[in-house]
Write a structure and sequence with these properties.
Rossmann fold; 2 domains; 6-stranded mixed beta sheet; about 25% strand; alpha/beta
Length: about 500
């Protein structure tokens, strides 16, 4: 690592009386990958927005390459060599890769946009960072991983000196993660400093040089990654050690009744003749690689997507479920992996988002009891430790993890019999994960049943009583938790159909 290129000292920020940043310190050196960690709502994103000029700081100082600095907007920080790769990419899918890279600063020839020149320059940039992408390809045809590579190349084209990566691997496959890390190491060698925001501990250990931890808007400390354990970092983040060992035996009694049975479910090319049972008080984990068809199975079960064939039985009786409304009436709730698309009403309040599925219970003589809605929504969000100033707060002003908690509170309030959690802890910090695990355990103790889809094998092994594994739309096996290992799951997850 080289010279200090960024020094933020005593950064303060207030929002409508909320003290969001309370004297935060942060330092970055040339050629360093510095992880910025903390629970959702800890202030990480706010600190980055202060750095980039989106928010004006209310106190403290920023020194960038030895000079006192305060950027007025994003354009100024980009011109100074600071680029941010956001978790949710903001690009134009109908334009080509090259057009996306040079939008707003296009090459021109005789007054017209020179697409050929942009393609040539894009190819040179891709060669520079070591990736193979067709500059003339439509951006929307690329995987999320390749789109991130395009963003990185775009940053390099701006003579990037400081790169911020916000949850860059949340939607990447393992090969794409490896490709990203290779590019990051190449950028390190060129002296580019990187701020890496992630909740994935294994990645932090592999890629970062130092870790700075924030908690509730405050600076907790900075440590050398090589000198601390995963538990040390977690304790800094949440103020306690969170243990999470693999479950060794099922908690479901042998004589527990079958609550749900799915027979011969077929839905397009993604779901091929899938059958399974779910017992009362059981957590059934769905495991498999991306594209295995796990989400498609539960969406067809829930009535969100049409199914060609298949029978659904609840408590031994055949159930008619062709729409989500019918599923909810039958006591089935679904927490989608794509929460912003299917779960969130960002311009509505926390109270409205929490009570929307149970709104009938708050209507008397055609009038909605708003006070009771707020009271009950507060009760359920307090159980989840949702961080919000009030139930009137708009959901869009909460962090991603707290938005997730509001949706879980919605279905807890609905008091269903079967909960389908699709990637329930994606993008959520370790402290919030622990709380969600605790709530799931409380649900099954009350006799509820859970189907949990997760791409994190440690999570599947920690929570499941039984594990169903899929590959290419087919169920390839079931494992009792007492016999399950990561190796056995991966063998089943890669068991392709023989032609």
């Amino acid at each position: 690592m080289g010279e200090t290129i960024l020094k933020m000292q005593g950064i303060q920020k207030y929002f409508s009386g909320v003290h969001a940043l309370k004297g935060v310190d942060f330092e970055l050196r040339a050629g360093e990958v510095h992880a910025l960690m903390g629970e959702n709502g800890a202030g990480k994103s706010t600190l980055i927005k202060v750095l980039c000029g989106i928010h004006k700081k209310d106190g403290g100082s920023i020194t960038y390459f030895g000079e006192d600095t305060e950027f007025a907007n994003i354009a100024e920080s980009q011109a100074a060599g600071i680029s941010v790769i956001h978790q949710e990419l903001n690009m134009m899918n109908d334009l080509t890769v090259a057009q996306n890279m040079f939008i707003g600063r296009e090459f021109k020839k005789s007054g017209l946009i020179d697409d050929r020149k942009m393609e040539e320059e894009a190819k040179l940039l891709f060669d520079r960072i070591g990736v193979h992408i067709d500059p003339n390809c439509k951006l929307g045809n690329l995987t999320v991983g390749k789109q991130q590579m395009v963003e990185i190349a775009k940053a390099v084209s701006r003579d990037c000196k400081l790169l911020v990566l916000d949850e860059p691997t949340a939607a990447l496959t393992l090969p794409e993660v490896e490709e990203l890390f290779k590019i990051m190491r190449d950028l390190q060698a060129k002296g580019i400093g990187m701020i890496y925001i992630s909740h994935r501990m294994d990645e932090i250990n592999r890629i970062s040089d130092r870790v700075t931890v924030m908690r509730d808007g405050e600076y907790v400390g900075t440590v050398n990654t090589a000198e601390v354990t995963k538990d040390d970092i977690v304790k800094m983040m949440v103020g306690r050690v969170i243990m999470g060992e693999q479950k060794t035996a099922s908690n479901v009694p042998a004589d527990a009744p079958v609550l749900l049975e799915v027979k011969n479910l077929n839905a397009g090319k993604e779901v091929k003749n899938v059958s399974f049972q779910l017992r009362k008080g059981e957590i059934l984990g769905f495991a498999g690689l991306m594209g295995a068809g796990r989400t498609e199975v539960v969406r067809a079960l829930y009535g969100a997507d049409p199914r060609q064939t298949g029978e659904i039985y609840l408590n031994g009786k055949r159930a008619k479920i062709k729409t989500p409304t019918q599923a909810v009436r039958n006591g089935i709730c679904y927490l989608s992996e794509d929460r912003k698309r299917y779960g969130l009403m960002l311009d509505k309040s926390v109270s409205e988002n929490t009570t929307i599925a149970s709104v009938d219970h708050f209507i008397t003589a055609g009038i909605i009891n708003d006070a009771k809605m707020k009271k009950d929504s507060a009760e359920y969000n307090e159980k989840l430790r949702t961080k919000t100033p009030s139930m009137d707060q708009l959901l869009k002003n909460l962090s991603g993890g707290n938005q997730q908690k509001v949706i879980i509170a919605r279905w807890l309030m609905k008091n269903a019999d079967i909960f389908i959690f699709d990637e329930p802890t994606r993008g959520i910090d370790v402290g919030a994960k622990s709380e969600i695990y605790r709530l799931m355990e409380e649900l099954v103790e009350q006799g509820k049943s859970i189907i949990m889809i997760s791409s994190e094998l440690p999570e599947v092994l920690r929570m499941s009583d039984r594990i169903l594994v899929m590959c290419e739309g087919r169920k390839t096996g079931e494992l009792d938790i007492s016999e399950a290992t990561q190796e056995k799951i991966m063998q089943l997850a890669t068991m392709r159909e023989e032609n």
